[in-house]
Amino acid sequence: MSTSVNNAQTQGANLMLETADSLDALVAFYKKAIVDNGWTIDSTTTLSAEMTMLGATKDKRQLAVQVIDSKDKRTVTETVATKN
Q1: What sign does the CA torsion over 34, 46, 73, 76 have?
Q2: Given pLDDT bands bounded at 50, 70 and 90, which one contains residue 64?
């Protein structure tokens, strides 16, 4: 599922994915991919054994990646926004 916002203050998009990959593998993948694509990771927050959030910036853009572990699947939510 994806959504987007485009108004006078913010432009952005939200993408939600599901996978059978492990939480640890997903977090490692996103950490590497974020840095490899020129973003700076500003925060890594592990809220529980079931959820990790990454925050990153690049130019005027902000990125948030949330990985949630739930039984047989993991849900990844990616949100990117640009402040005008």
Answers
A1: negative
A2: very high
CATH number of 8-79: 3.30.310.80
Angular region, 71: left φ>0, alpha ψ -120 to 50, beta rest: left
Q: So where are the chain's domains?
A: 8-79
Shortest CA distance to 57 belongs to which of 45, 47, 67, 43? 43
Q: What are the structure tokens assigned to 66, written together?
A: 């949330």
pLDDT in tens, 25-48: 999 999 999 999 999 999 999 988
Percentage of the chain lying above the pLDDT 70 cut: 87
Q: What is the rounded CA–CA span in Å between residue 62 and residue 64?
A: 7
